């Protein structure tokens, strides 16, 4: 398949690129700094930002699907770290994708978004309400509303806490309550799951919660 990966220079995005290439896909990335990605066979690196509708449309030309691994940047991973911007970047990107018409898109979201908030662990609800994570979740909620009102063929992957661990564990795929999710999920497992959704055309117009035991 020919895939466009947004957020390809990030920690999860890099894994999507690596695993996608290993699976034999052609990957196009759209990044501000092309030097942030190592050139390799099967990877086309385009300079630009997905918040630019024209740049996104050009990058998506001829692609079978778009995988979005963008995030809301903060000064560190700490939940109270200062946001580098309060602009709803993810929502703007979603609107640009929706404007393409009927696009297949698999986008990284988070547990606690939408109807998964009330059933998420209390510490997660506390952090969303009381820390700068609230800006990111407001953006994710806005993204979900936009896709639900569109003709895009979307999957929003509600990942639990992202981990850089290497040890493989059984993946749990379900809702916010059934089966009961674990607290964390490896970024590499998220990358594999997102690629599986594209390859199998699964979880269309769904919001699967993924975690690990």
TrEMBL record:
Domain of life: Bacteria
SUPFAM superfamilies, alphabetized: NAD(P)-binding Rossmann-fold domains
Ranges for domain NAD(P)-binding: 7-200
Pfam families associated with the record: NAD_binding_10
Gene3D superfamilies assigned: NAD(P)-binding Rossmann-like Domain (3.40.50.720)
Protein name in UniProt: NAD(P)-dependent oxidoreductase
Protein source organism: Seohaeicola saemankumensis
